[in-house]
């Protein structure tokens, strides 16, 4: 089944909103961290509403607004969000205050807003959207599960328009903690992996409109798969979608700059997609659990504009791009596949 | 009393993140909720915590909240009347 993209909003470490020169000049990481380029939030909400929101909430509301505006929809029929870490900033504040105040007289706002479902809830509150509202928190499969839920819902009620997206943020505390695992580049290793963050929302419907040009046609996840299982999984995924690997015009690969992890994905790319254009995206988004949402935004933009930004291409087949496969490995355990097609 | 109200205005702005306001923008007798500053029930909880953190006063009866948190002056009067010795 295909679901059609009606609108998209993306706040990322690149200039992915606001003007036509998106991605022309990629912004480099500051050290081993890529932080979002944020808009003026007063364009999207009243200053009195802003005061209580943490950064991820503001990014969520703004990205959701961008997607709805592009889709020309005021209130969606439902909101589905994927987030691995949830609202980390408020979680950090709440836990910090517990220690500072010896578990006495704790401020309610960061506690209330520390839960993962605050992002989808905040969007619903501002829109007065009383429809279906779900948040998926399956680590690096959170966005994929949000998409799978949308596919299921729209199979039943294709005329609905759902706001579907993903959000994850870096905080100083989370960055410090993650750095201790040695997963980002620093002076002690040869990695190129940088920490990333981002919020992307999409308006999706099961009914094709006259101006729709992008469809998401299949989504799957493969957990803890070895190379043979993954290879077979990709073949099966494409076969179920009615195509084979040679039908993929562009492979958008989520390799992160960790040679040991990337070798696995590079082998898959070479084995199955030798005739496809191949491109990377995590030098733009950084590595984070819901980076596949950035990749879907990028794939949709490529299909809309019929142009692949040269700064992401690693192998150019010269083929016109009508079908994009996003293959996003997250470290060695999580592998997801999202198929997008021009329609 | 004047100094206490001035301190309270700064603390309210800080605690409720009212960055668009300066202390002098809040009148001593201005309503804090609904038609006044537009505060809501979550702000009321923050004000209860503010009293605990800054003045070591625990609201004995939450139902008194609407009267106590009516304005900066009523909060200051409550603090003066209930401040631990």
From TrEMBL, chain A:
Keyword Acetylation recorded: no
Pfam families per UniProt: Ketoacyl-synt_2
UniProt xrefs under InterPro entries: Beta-ketoacyl_synthase (IPR000794), Ketoacyl_synth_N (IPR014030), Thiolase-like (IPR016039)
Domain Beta-ketoacyl synthase-like N-terminal: 45-173
TM stretches of this protein: none
Keyword terms of this UniProt record: Transferase
PANTHER family hit by this protein: 3-OXOACYL-[ACYL-CARRIER-PROTEIN] SYNTHASE, MITOCHONDRIAL, POLYKETIDE SYNTHASE-RELATED
Protein name listed in UniProt: Beta-ketoacyl synthase chain length factor
From TrEMBL, chain B:
Pfam families per the UniProt record, alphabetical: PP-binding (PF00550)
Protein name: Acyl carrier protein
InterPro entries the UniProt entry points to: ACP-like_sf (IPR036736), PP-bd_ACP (IPR009081), Ppantetheine_attach_site (IPR006162)
Species this protein is from: Chryseolinea lacunae
SUPFAM superfamilies linked to this entry: ACP-like
Keywords of the record: Phosphopantetheine, Phosphoprotein
Residue ranges annotated for the Carrier domain, each copy included: 1-83
